[in-house]
Design goal:
Elements lengths: L4 H20 L5 H19 L5 H20 L2 H5 L5 H7 L5 H18 L1 H16 L1
Helix pairs in contact: 1-2, 2-3, 2-6, 3-6
């Protein structure tokens, strides 16, 4: 098994960004929305260090985010008594939001677009050539 150093560096950079957001951001966009957008990309990058299948890993990352949001919906931390652990509460989040679901989904779409950029360029080139005829 080989480790993908490109994704290791990306995952570490995203982790650092997420920590900065969690500690310093107190706004209505960066922390609640952009942080969730990046969270899916962070999980994806972490998994891609070891695994190769782009689409499957992106889908697993999205499902992990949805699962965590579902735990928030059912007040998992409160039910288990784990809400008192600040780090766990920050990592898992504390309240369900449909905007979080949207942010996760947009992160997933972003992953697919970036990872398949060459395919997109080829598709656009074909579209342009077809429209010229």
């Amino acid at each position: 098994m080989t480790l993908n150093s490109k994704y290791l560096v990306l995952a570490l950079a995203l982790l650092a960004i997420e920590i900065v957001i969690a500690v310093f951001a107190r706004d209505q966009f960066i922390r609640p929305f952009f942080g969730d957008f990046l969270a899916v990309i962070f999980v994806y990058s972490g998994l891609r260090i070891v695994f190769d299948n782009t689409f499957i890993i992106a889908l697993i990352s999205l499902f992990i985010a949805y699962f965590i949001e579902t735990l928030q919906y059912f007040k998992f931390l409160e039910i288990t008594g784990w809400a008192k652990y600040k780090v766990l509460a920050v990592v898992l989040g504390s309240s369900f939001s449909w905007l979080d679901i949207l942010a996760y989904t947009l992160g997933f779409v972003f992953i697919l677009l970036v990872e398949n950029f060459e395919i997109i360029k080829l598709f656009l080139k074909l579209q342009l050539e077809t429209s010229r005829k």
